[in-house]
Amino acid sequence: MATFRYVIRDTIRQLTRHFTVVFLTLLTIVAVFLAVGMSILLSINVTALAFQIESDLTIEAYLKDQNAVESVMGRLKNMPQITNVRYISPEEALKRLDEKIGQGDQIISLLGDNPLPPSVIVTVDKAENLNLVANEIDAFPEVDDVIYAGEVAERLASLAYFLNRFAMAVFLVALITSLVVMMNTIRIALYSRREEIGVMLLVGATPNYVSLPFLLQGVVLGGMGALMALFFLVKAYRRLLEVLSRVLPFFNMLDSPEITLWLFCLLVGGGVALGWICSWLAVHKHIRRSLKPR
After folding, report:
1. Model pTM?
2. Which ranges in the chain are annotated with CATH 3.30.70.3040?
3. pLDDT in tens, 58-108
Protein backbone atom coordinates (compact mmCIF):
# COMPACT_ATOMS: atom_id res chain seq x y z
CA MET A 1 0.00 0.00 0.00
CA ALA A 2 2.87 2.37 0.85
CA THR A 3 4.46 1.66 -2.52
CA PHE A 4 1.19 2.36 -4.29
CA ARG A 5 0.77 5.71 -2.50
CA TYR A 6 4.35 6.63 -3.33
CA VAL A 7 3.89 5.81 -7.02
CA ILE A 8 0.65 7.80 -7.32
CA ARG A 9 1.99 10.77 -5.36
CA ASP A 10 5.24 11.01 -7.31
CA THR A 11 3.52 10.51 -10.65
CA ILE A 12 1.16 13.41 -9.97
CA ARG A 13 4.06 15.53 -8.74
CA GLN A 14 6.08 14.88 -11.91
CA LEU A 15 3.11 15.63 -14.16
CA THR A 16 2.53 19.00 -12.46
CA ARG A 17 6.11 20.03 -11.65
CA HIS A 18 7.14 20.64 -15.27
CA PHE A 19 3.69 21.56 -16.51
CA THR A 20 4.81 23.42 -19.66
CA VAL A 21 7.02 20.56 -20.83
CA VAL A 22 4.34 17.98 -20.03
CA PHE A 23 1.68 20.03 -21.84
CA LEU A 24 3.83 20.40 -24.97
CA THR A 25 4.61 16.69 -24.88
CA LEU A 26 0.90 15.92 -24.64
CA LEU A 27 0.14 18.20 -27.61
CA THR A 28 2.84 16.48 -29.65
CA ILE A 29 1.46 13.04 -28.85
CA VAL A 30 -2.08 14.16 -29.77
CA ALA A 31 -0.86 15.55 -33.12
CA VAL A 32 1.16 12.41 -33.84
CA PHE A 33 -1.71 10.01 -33.15
CA LEU A 34 -4.14 12.22 -35.07
CA ALA A 35 -1.90 11.88 -38.13
CA VAL A 36 -1.67 8.12 -37.64
CA GLY A 37 -5.43 7.76 -37.17
CA MET A 38 -6.29 9.88 -40.22
CA SER A 39 -3.93 7.95 -42.47
CA ILE A 40 -5.39 4.65 -41.21
CA LEU A 41 -8.99 5.78 -41.81
CA LEU A 42 -8.14 7.02 -45.29
CA SER A 43 -6.38 3.77 -46.15
CA ILE A 44 -9.16 1.43 -44.94
CA ASN A 45 -11.88 3.48 -46.66
CA VAL A 46 -10.11 3.41 -50.02
CA THR A 47 -9.38 -0.31 -49.62
CA ALA A 48 -13.02 -1.03 -48.79
CA LEU A 49 -14.19 1.06 -51.75
CA ALA A 50 -11.84 -0.80 -54.10
CA PHE A 51 -13.12 -4.15 -52.83
CA GLN A 52 -16.73 -3.01 -53.20
CA ILE A 53 -16.20 -1.87 -56.78
CA GLU A 54 -14.18 -4.95 -57.65
CA SER A 55 -17.04 -7.19 -56.46
CA ASP A 56 -19.48 -5.39 -58.78
CA LEU A 57 -19.83 -7.68 -61.80
CA THR A 58 -21.91 -5.30 -63.91
CA ILE A 59 -21.05 -3.50 -67.14
CA GLU A 60 -23.05 -0.55 -68.46
CA ALA A 61 -22.97 0.06 -72.21
CA TYR A 62 -24.30 3.39 -73.55
CA LEU A 63 -26.01 3.08 -76.92
CA LYS A 64 -25.87 5.57 -79.76
CA ASP A 65 -29.64 5.53 -80.25
CA GLN A 66 -32.74 3.58 -79.22
CA ASN A 67 -33.06 1.87 -82.59
CA ALA A 68 -30.09 -0.36 -81.72
CA VAL A 69 -31.62 -1.73 -78.49
CA GLU A 70 -33.10 -4.95 -79.90
CA SER A 71 -30.03 -5.99 -81.90
CA VAL A 72 -27.66 -5.28 -79.01
CA MET A 73 -29.88 -7.08 -76.48
CA GLY A 74 -30.09 -10.13 -78.76
CA ARG A 75 -26.32 -10.36 -79.18
CA LEU A 76 -25.70 -9.90 -75.46
CA LYS A 77 -28.11 -12.67 -74.46
CA ASN A 78 -26.18 -15.11 -76.64
CA MET A 79 -22.88 -14.46 -74.85
CA PRO A 80 -22.19 -17.33 -72.37
CA GLN A 81 -20.37 -15.13 -69.83
CA ILE A 82 -23.41 -12.88 -69.33
CA THR A 83 -26.02 -13.98 -66.77
CA ASN A 84 -28.44 -11.04 -66.99
CA VAL A 85 -29.24 -8.19 -69.41
CA ARG A 86 -31.32 -5.13 -68.53
CA TYR A 87 -32.29 -2.16 -70.69
CA ILE A 88 -32.25 1.34 -69.14
CA SER A 89 -34.28 3.97 -70.98
CA PRO A 90 -33.27 7.67 -70.84
CA GLU A 91 -36.26 8.33 -68.56
CA GLU A 92 -35.21 5.59 -66.13
CA ALA A 93 -31.60 6.80 -66.26
CA LEU A 94 -32.74 10.30 -65.29
CA LYS A 95 -34.80 8.85 -62.44
CA ARG A 96 -31.77 6.90 -61.17
CA LEU A 97 -29.66 10.05 -61.34
CA ASP A 98 -32.30 11.99 -59.46
CA GLU A 99 -32.37 9.32 -56.71
CA LYS A 100 -28.61 9.58 -56.29
CA ILE A 101 -28.02 13.35 -56.39
CA GLY A 102 -31.54 14.77 -56.36
CA GLN A 103 -31.03 17.19 -59.27
CA GLY A 104 -32.96 15.58 -62.10
CA ASP A 105 -35.41 18.50 -62.46
CA GLN A 106 -32.57 21.02 -62.56
CA ILE A 107 -30.86 19.10 -65.36
CA ILE A 108 -34.04 19.15 -67.46
CA SER A 109 -34.65 22.85 -66.76
CA LEU A 110 -31.07 23.78 -67.70
CA LEU A 111 -30.79 21.67 -70.85
CA GLY A 112 -34.41 21.67 -71.90
CA ASP A 113 -34.34 17.95 -72.69
CA ASN A 114 -33.19 14.69 -71.18
CA PRO A 115 -29.48 14.42 -72.16
CA LEU A 116 -29.00 10.86 -70.90
CA PRO A 117 -28.60 8.16 -73.57
CA PRO A 118 -30.22 4.71 -73.49
CA SER A 119 -28.02 2.04 -71.98
CA VAL A 120 -27.82 -1.66 -71.27
CA ILE A 121 -26.63 -3.13 -67.98
CA VAL A 122 -25.22 -6.64 -68.15
CA THR A 123 -24.15 -8.90 -65.30
CA VAL A 124 -21.09 -11.11 -65.79
CA ASP A 125 -20.71 -14.54 -64.18
CA LYS A 126 -17.11 -14.10 -62.95
CA ALA A 127 -14.85 -11.15 -62.15
CA GLU A 128 -12.11 -12.42 -64.47
CA ASN A 129 -14.52 -12.16 -67.43
CA LEU A 130 -15.19 -8.43 -66.92
CA ASN A 131 -12.40 -7.18 -69.18
CA LEU A 132 -13.15 -9.74 -71.92
CA VAL A 133 -16.88 -8.98 -72.04
CA ALA A 134 -16.35 -5.22 -71.75
CA ASN A 135 -13.94 -5.24 -74.73
CA GLU A 136 -16.36 -7.30 -76.81
CA ILE A 137 -19.29 -4.97 -76.06
CA ASP A 138 -17.14 -1.92 -76.74
CA ALA A 139 -16.50 -3.28 -80.23
CA PHE A 140 -20.21 -3.24 -81.08
CA PRO A 141 -20.87 -0.51 -83.68
CA GLU A 142 -24.11 0.44 -81.87
CA VAL A 143 -22.29 1.10 -78.55
CA ASP A 144 -21.00 4.57 -77.83
CA ASP A 145 -19.18 3.94 -74.53
CA VAL A 146 -18.68 1.22 -71.92
CA ILE A 147 -18.27 1.70 -68.18
CA TYR A 148 -17.39 -1.12 -65.79
CA ALA A 149 -15.75 -1.60 -62.43
CA GLY A 150 -12.55 -3.29 -63.60
CA GLU A 151 -10.49 -0.22 -64.51
CA VAL A 152 -11.76 1.81 -61.57
CA ALA A 153 -11.07 -1.05 -59.18
CA GLU A 154 -7.51 -1.41 -60.48
CA ARG A 155 -6.83 2.30 -59.96
CA LEU A 156 -8.34 2.21 -56.48
CA ALA A 157 -6.31 -0.88 -55.64
CA SER A 158 -3.15 0.96 -56.66
CA LEU A 159 -4.23 3.95 -54.59
CA ALA A 160 -4.98 1.69 -51.61
CA TYR A 161 -1.52 0.11 -51.94
CA PHE A 162 0.09 3.56 -51.93
CA LEU A 163 -2.02 4.70 -48.96
CA ASN A 164 -1.09 1.58 -46.98
CA ARG A 165 2.58 2.37 -47.53
CA PHE A 166 1.92 6.01 -46.69
CA ALA A 167 0.17 5.02 -43.45
CA MET A 168 3.15 2.86 -42.52
CA ALA A 169 5.55 5.74 -43.22
CA VAL A 170 3.42 8.10 -41.12
CA PHE A 171 3.39 5.55 -38.32
CA LEU A 172 7.19 5.19 -38.37
CA VAL A 173 7.74 8.96 -38.38
CA ALA A 174 5.18 9.35 -35.59
CA LEU A 175 6.84 6.57 -33.60
CA ILE A 176 10.27 8.21 -33.83
CA THR A 177 8.85 11.65 -32.98
CA SER A 178 6.98 10.31 -29.97
CA LEU A 179 10.01 8.39 -28.75
CA VAL A 180 12.25 11.46 -28.89
CA VAL A 181 9.75 13.85 -27.29
CA MET A 182 8.59 11.52 -24.53
CA MET A 183 12.08 10.34 -23.65
CA ASN A 184 13.25 13.94 -23.33
CA THR A 185 10.30 14.69 -21.02
CA ILE A 186 11.18 11.74 -18.77
CA ARG A 187 14.86 12.74 -18.80
CA ILE A 188 13.95 16.25 -17.62
CA ALA A 189 12.00 14.74 -14.73
CA LEU A 190 14.90 12.42 -13.92
CA TYR A 191 17.44 15.23 -14.05
CA SER A 192 15.40 17.43 -11.70
CA ARG A 193 15.33 14.59 -9.14
CA ARG A 194 18.79 13.12 -9.76
CA GLU A 195 20.03 13.80 -6.23
CA GLU A 196 16.87 12.43 -4.62
CA ILE A 197 17.04 9.30 -6.78
CA GLY A 198 20.73 8.82 -5.89
CA VAL A 199 19.97 9.02 -2.17
CA MET A 200 17.07 6.57 -2.49
CA LEU A 201 19.28 4.05 -4.27
CA LEU A 202 22.02 4.47 -1.65
CA VAL A 203 19.69 3.77 1.27
CA GLY A 204 18.41 0.55 -0.30
CA ALA A 205 15.52 1.46 -2.60
CA THR A 206 15.23 -1.02 -5.48
CA PRO A 207 15.47 0.19 -9.09
CA ASN A 208 11.88 -0.96 -9.70
CA TYR A 209 10.64 1.11 -6.75
CA VAL A 210 12.39 4.21 -8.09
CA SER A 211 11.32 3.58 -11.70
CA LEU A 212 7.59 3.08 -11.17
CA PRO A 213 6.55 6.78 -10.99
CA PHE A 214 8.44 7.57 -14.20
CA LEU A 215 7.01 4.53 -15.98
CA LEU A 216 3.51 5.52 -14.92
CA GLN A 217 4.15 9.10 -16.08
CA GLY A 218 5.01 7.82 -19.55
CA VAL A 219 1.95 5.56 -19.60
CA VAL A 220 -0.34 8.43 -18.56
CA LEU A 221 1.11 10.80 -21.18
CA GLY A 222 0.99 8.22 -23.97
CA GLY A 223 -2.47 6.90 -23.11
CA MET A 224 -4.02 10.32 -22.48
CA GLY A 225 -2.53 11.80 -25.67
CA ALA A 226 -3.79 8.87 -27.76
CA LEU A 227 -7.22 9.04 -26.11
CA MET A 228 -7.54 12.78 -26.85
CA ALA A 229 -6.43 12.16 -30.44
CA LEU A 230 -9.07 9.42 -30.77
CA PHE A 231 -11.76 11.77 -29.42
CA PHE A 232 -10.93 14.53 -31.96
CA LEU A 233 -10.55 11.98 -34.74
CA VAL A 234 -13.96 10.37 -34.14
CA LYS A 235 -15.64 13.79 -33.90
CA ALA A 236 -14.05 14.95 -37.17
CA TYR A 237 -14.86 11.64 -38.90
CA ARG A 238 -18.52 11.82 -37.86
CA ARG A 239 -18.72 15.38 -39.13
CA LEU A 240 -17.16 14.33 -42.43
CA LEU A 241 -19.70 11.51 -42.78
CA GLU A 242 -22.55 13.99 -42.27
CA VAL A 243 -21.16 16.40 -44.88
CA LEU A 244 -20.50 13.65 -47.45
CA SER A 245 -23.98 12.18 -46.96
CA ARG A 246 -25.42 15.53 -48.11
CA VAL A 247 -22.89 16.48 -50.78
CA LEU A 248 -22.04 13.03 -52.17
CA PRO A 249 -24.88 10.68 -51.16
CA PHE A 250 -23.62 7.93 -53.47
CA PHE A 251 -20.19 7.83 -51.78
CA ASN A 252 -20.44 5.47 -48.80
CA MET A 253 -17.68 5.64 -46.20
CA LEU A 254 -17.24 3.00 -43.52
CA ASP A 255 -19.31 3.75 -40.44
CA SER A 256 -19.62 1.18 -37.67
CA PRO A 257 -18.88 0.88 -33.93
CA GLU A 258 -16.27 -1.76 -34.76
CA ILE A 259 -14.10 0.88 -36.45
CA THR A 260 -14.15 3.08 -33.33
CA LEU A 261 -13.34 0.08 -31.12
CA TRP A 262 -10.54 -0.98 -33.44
CA LEU A 263 -9.08 2.54 -33.45
CA PHE A 264 -9.37 2.70 -29.66
CA CYS A 265 -7.41 -0.52 -29.23
CA LEU A 266 -4.81 0.50 -31.80
CA LEU A 267 -4.24 4.13 -30.79
CA VAL A 268 -4.71 3.99 -27.02
CA GLY A 269 -2.96 0.63 -26.74
CA GLY A 270 -0.13 1.99 -28.87
CA GLY A 271 0.07 5.16 -26.77
CA VAL A 272 0.28 3.22 -23.50
CA ALA A 273 2.89 0.83 -24.90
CA LEU A 274 4.90 3.69 -26.37
CA GLY A 275 4.82 5.61 -23.08
CA TRP A 276 5.99 2.57 -21.15
CA ILE A 277 8.84 1.81 -23.58
CA CYS A 278 10.08 5.42 -23.68
CA SER A 279 10.00 5.72 -19.90
CA TRP A 280 11.73 2.39 -19.40
CA LEU A 281 14.53 3.28 -21.82
CA ALA A 282 15.14 6.65 -20.14
CA VAL A 283 14.88 5.38 -16.54
CA HIS A 284 16.92 2.22 -17.12
CA LYS A 285 19.81 4.21 -18.55
CA HIS A 286 19.72 6.78 -15.73
CA ILE A 287 19.53 4.21 -12.91
CA ARG A 288 22.27 2.09 -14.41
CA ARG A 289 24.49 5.16 -14.50
CA SER A 290 23.56 6.08 -10.91
CA LEU A 291 24.41 2.57 -9.63
CA LYS A 292 27.91 2.59 -11.14
CA PRO A 293 30.64 2.88 -8.50
CA ARG A 294 32.35 6.24 -8.58
Report:
1. 0.64
2. 58-125
3. 888 888 887 878 888 888 888 888 888 888 887 787 777 666 655 545 555
Fold entry, domain 58-125: Alpha-Beta Plaits (3.30.70)
Q: What is the 3-state secondary structure (H, E, C) of the chain?
A: CHHHHHHHHHHHHHHHHCHHHHHHHHHHHHHHHHHHHHHHHHHHHHHHHHHHHHCCCEEEEEECCHHHHHHHHHHHHCCCCEEEEEEECHHHHHHHHHHHHCCHHHHHHHHCCCCCCCEEEEEECCHHHHHHHHHHHHCCCCEEEEEEHHHHHHHHHHHHHHHHHHHHHHHHHHHHHHHHHHHHHHHHHHHHCHHHHHHHHHCCCCHHHHHHHHHHHHHHHHHHHHHHHHHHHHHHHHHHHHHHHHHCCCCCCCCCHHHHHHHHHHHHHHHHHHHHHHHHHHHHHHHHHHHCCC
